[in-house]
Amino acid sequence: MRSCAPLLNPPFKPAPAPHPNLNPNPNAASAHGPTLLRCALVARAAPRDDPLPAPSSFDFLALKRELEEQEEAVIPVDATEGGGDDEVVNEEDGERVPKRIGSSGRRTGRQMARRSGLLAKQVISVSSARSLGFVSQLWVDASSWVVALVEVRPSLLSGDADKFLFDDIYQIGDVVLVQDESVVENEFKLVGLHGLVGYNVVTSRRRNVGKVRGFTFNINSGVLESLELDSFGLTIVPASLVSTYCLFVEDVLDIVSDTIVVHEDAISRVQRLTQVSITDCF
């Protein structure tokens, strides 16, 4: 049996494989080519074969302008029926728009107007475009506290007066519109109706509160909301020259002749509208 003796000097010794991520001489390339790290760096820095996607051509400014043009082209539609009001205060947004009322298009919104805002307006017939005169008085039904009749005269200072129902008003703007001239052909009695201006206002115990110089009412229904008071009851005296007050109609008990009787504690609920001191008059 033969045995194999180990060789003292092997014919060759395999050299240790270099570390794949190390290059002892960075300025010289390996005999087997560039290292893996260098290949990775070169591959990262090399330009990509596939081109970058082109920038989007979507124009946000053009889209915004298009949307704005569409919004301008939309016609605003009123949420309620009918039109607007004249010098009537819209309590929701304060906007002044033409007011259409009457049986042909009564609105149900709460639009308040002052008596002085309706006086002296010209009344025009829609069918004939003829003037029927100027508003000279508003007559109030004391049983329901509603403006019942509108009085017109050919001029503000003279002429025979005609009357028509407040419900016959078609629209109020710079002028008062009615359907036709037939609205003034009827005869109306003033029984139970009051002009209110100049009336004394007292409590149930005869305490003086003031005199009526005007009132505020709902332009849609004609229902009165409040009375405007001062010391004289003269509409020719500007409100800027006198102290004025507001008294709500719900405090009224009765009307006796030219005197309005209110609750005794109504004085505590009177609200001041304007105040004039003695120094303001000089």
What does this structure look like?
It is a single chain. The chain is 10% helix and 30% strand. The chain has 282 residues and is mainly β. Among the domains are: 89-193, SH3 type barrels (Roll), CATH 2.30.30.240; 196-281, PRC-barrel domain (SH3 type barrels, Roll), CATH 2.30.30. Residues 19-24, 26-48, 73-98 and 102-107 have low confidence and may be disordered.
Question: Would you summarize the structure shown here?
Answer:
With 282 residues, the protein is mainly β. The protein has helices spanning 36-45, 60-73, 115-118, and strands spanning 89-90, 99-100, 111-114, 122-125, 131-141, 146-153, 162-165, 169-172, 176-178, 193-194, 200-203, 208-218, 224-230, 244-248, 252-256, 259-262, 271-274.
Defining key terms:
282 residues, mainly beta, SH3 type barrels, 3 helices, globular, PRC_barrel-like_sf, PRC-barrel domain-containing protein
By secondary-structure content and strand pairing, the structural class works out as: mainly beta
Beta-sheet strand percentage? Answer: 25-35%
Distance between the termini: 149 Å
Q: Give me the Rg, rounded.
A: 45 Å
Elements, N to C (H/E): HHEEEHEEEEEEEEEEEEEE
Query: In total, how many beta strands?
Result: 17
Overall pLDDT metric? 75
User: In CATH, what is the homologous superfamily of the domain at 89-193?
Assistant: PRC-barrel domain
Biggest sheet features: 9 strands, mixed
Tell me, briefly, the overall form: globular
User: Uncertain spans, ≥5 residues at pLDDT below 50?
Assistant: 19-24, 26-48, 73-98, 102-107
CATH level 1 name of the domain at 89-193: Mainly Beta
| CATH architecture heading of the domain at 89-193 | Roll
- Count of runs of 4 or more consecutive helical residues: 3
CATH topology descriptor of the domain at 89-193: SH3 type barrels
Biased composition (Acidic residues): 83-94
Protein name: PRC-barrel domain-containing protein
Region (Disordered): 1-30, 79-108
Biased composition (Pro residues): 8-23
